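This section describes the prediction task in plain terms. A model, or a person checking by hand, is given the sequence of a single protein chain and must write out its three-dimensional structure as a string of tokens. No templates, partner chains or ligands are provided. The sample shown here is typical of the held-out split.
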Amino acid sequence: MIELTNYFETGELNLAWIMNDQISYVYDKDNELVIYGQGIAQRIATCDLLSDLDRKIILSWTKSLGDFMHQGPVIIRPGLVLSKALLDTQLNFSSMDYRQPFKAMAVEIPDEILGPHGPRALAFVYQPFPGELIVSLRSRIGDGRTTYNIHIGNDLSTIEERASHLEWADTLEEADFFHGICRISINACLLAATRQTKTEPLPDKIAKKRAKKDRRLQQLAARHCQEITFRDLIIYDRVKTGSGGEETDIIYGPQHRRGHWKKVAYGPKFSLHRLQWLNDYWTHRDIKFGTEQQTIVMK
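The expected answer:
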């Protein structure tokens, strides 16, 4: 059982739980997605000490975490090999084509990818409405914390276009880092909607607390996450194991094909369409890597 207290302070979890009903996403008169708050959240929304961007990020982050707890938190913990495969997969689909099995989901990013932003960080993918995505990350930088946040709508043809243009980023390193987080987390949640998965059952004690009418017991039980694992996922590590000799930049014959999503037809007379993930691969793999079997990761 994974506890949210491994990632967040108790006070932060309590505040997100309490403020969840005070924060809402709505469409304004121009059909733009906006967030507003009431009660304590309204004080944050009108605080002159914060910039407009900071206010939106705080409210958005709190709403994502609050909804995550109230629905019953679920988490994906991709291994390093799978995370690298997802990092190498472009988000070449629109937000209208995207779906995830839960409204709010969390993805644990491996420390090897977090680097100085770690250890232990969860990326949240929150889908308030179809075609709208909010991706957030709380990372550690030294003794402090930084919140990264992006809203992805359907104004651009692909999610990749939006995730690759982070106007708020102060440095190229910061933009590249969060762009990679978006790829890993969004791809992982879409995989959970398109592949066979298994959700870790709750212990009886926690399940009973969630069923109680006592809000305090519900809140304590909502700190326990259920892990989602993939039942039919095989990832081939493309680390060279049997080719012999040194790597060169010149490849004769074998070519690396980047991971991507492909829209395939199915159903009656192939009238329906869905996204199918293709992991990155090499053409003429045996020439480049030899005949030895590559690493297989089932999670």
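For orientation: The first helix runs from residue 10 to 19.
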